[in-house]
């Protein structure tokens, strides 16, 4: 196996994408200057890109939305070659609009879209596969151990179409939210419980809870708020006895990405997998009033898979427990 550099390489513009060497990013790069581009992060296992068809679709949809000229099939072939050499780890791909001939934000419109700079960083890392959940369509997805989450005061932007839902390079709201989560965990007086928070739930500027700092969110609701004496797990005995039923017991909801958030790869994998079951995923806003009624909640992304939560700490400090899985 050829050794891959754990550093950024420029796939384009270069003549030989297979042997491209690391190059210096120019301050004129529009991704650096204006966040003019997008990225995707791909897990690699046994030399194969996980959820490759979904990442391929992201390349196509984002290129169309941002008017970028990308040969998605050719680029995907190069990515598969890097995955084979990497064997196990992560490929982070960043695409930015090429430098323009005039100063400012604008770019020269073209029927085929703007030329791109394409950057890739292969990273050797372990992809967790200790526990894998079988989806109804037969695909396997990693399932992480139970963790806890907290509602954050940081908010994410509401964006117009076609920007909403894109994994664009403009992620400052997520940066600040992640910083808030780390500060909570690092506070000198933080409890052991607080230090265990693995994710934070974020609102957008309209006040709806949309996603995590690095993930999408799915949830289930009780018809009425549950009393302290009523066990939340009582309706999920099948789940307790057989975690394979985790996704197929009860109605799952996930917030819309129509005005904020990132329409993640794993989010779509789960929506598609449940689309032909008794309970297809319902796209539904998550409001403050819903939080006390939550009976199950998990976050997900393409690298970590499903991250089930055992509790959610609300803004005023109340804790909603999820006693299952």
Rg is 21 Å
Number of helices in the DSSP assignment: 7
The gross shape turns out to be globular
- In the predicted model, the low-confidence regions spanning at least 5 consecutive residues are 231-235
Distance N terminus to C terminus? 40 Å
Q: Find the structural class using helix and strand composition.
A: alpha+beta
Strand content: 25-35%
**On the 0-100 scale, what is the average pLDDT?**
89
Number of strands: 16
What share of the residues lie within helices? 10-25%
Which sequence of SSEs, written as H and E, runs from N to C? EHEEHHEEEEEHHEEEHEHEEEE
Largest sheet: 7 strands, mixed
Q: What does this molecule look like?
A:
With 325 residues, the chain is of the alpha+beta class. The chain contains 7 helices and 16 strands. Strands 8, 9, 10, 11, 14, 15 and 16 form a 7-stranded mixed beta sheet that branches. A 5-stranded antiparallel beta sheet has the order 1-5-4-2-3. The protein has a two-stranded antiparallel ribbon with strand order 6-7. It is globular. The two termini are 40 Å apart.
Which tags fit this structure?
28% strand, 325 residues, five-stranded antiparallel beta sheet, alpha+beta, single chain
